[in-house]
Amino acid sequence: MITVGINEDVLLKKVELNDKNTLSFVFEEAGNKDKPANPFDILNSEEVVETSSGLTVNLFQPNAPDKADFTEERKVDMVTNDVNSIKSILVHFLKGWMTSEQVKGRIMPFTGVPIDATNYNQQILKPDILAAIQKNMATTFIQIITPLLSEAKPFRLLLIRQSTDKHWPTFRKRYIEENPFWESMEIPKEASKLKFTADEKGKKLNDPTVTVKKDAVDKPIDQAPVTAANVFGS
User: Fold this and answer.
1) How far apart are CA 29 and CA 145, in angstroms?
2) Which of 100, 138, 148, 211 has its CB surrounded by the most CB atoms within 10 Å?
3) Domains of the chain: which residue ranges?
């Protein structure tokens, strides 16, 4: 099962962009195409979906925070970090098939988007601009990587928890160059560069333990006696 932790022999099967502008990465365990889905995670997930043979991790479109007490400068910084994180993740994946020089300049957020240095602070907070940026990066990435996926290339994949309270696996989004989250299986395990950072360990983002909502466990369920009337109606 592909989950939080360092997963061995993983394949990236496909990457898709849906009508909500969510970019989905579909992973599969190499040589294990018939593994059944985990029904708990299917029904309980928000950002990760178990499939019949693996895992789907989603990158959602960035959105400007709507908190009134945030300054515009803070909102701009937050959105900038979100866009940069997505770009970094896409570039990180492409470097598994291409050299750094070949990847350079391929994923450009603002290509064809009406935004530049003079209007950046005003434009970057607009939903339609963020939608265009996401679609631009995602579409370009899919066009580049899809032909490359025809060659099965098993790799190690490090996934962290979404948060201390949410167990769904996701990609780390910061300092990816220094702390990669995937690498070829051709690299011997003893030479692997994949590891959890001290910060991730401190926040228990390396813990795959499923989080069950307290209300779901503690709250009693009022259940009427089973009778023909309340099952089939009177």
Assistant:
1) 19
2) 138
3) 5-202
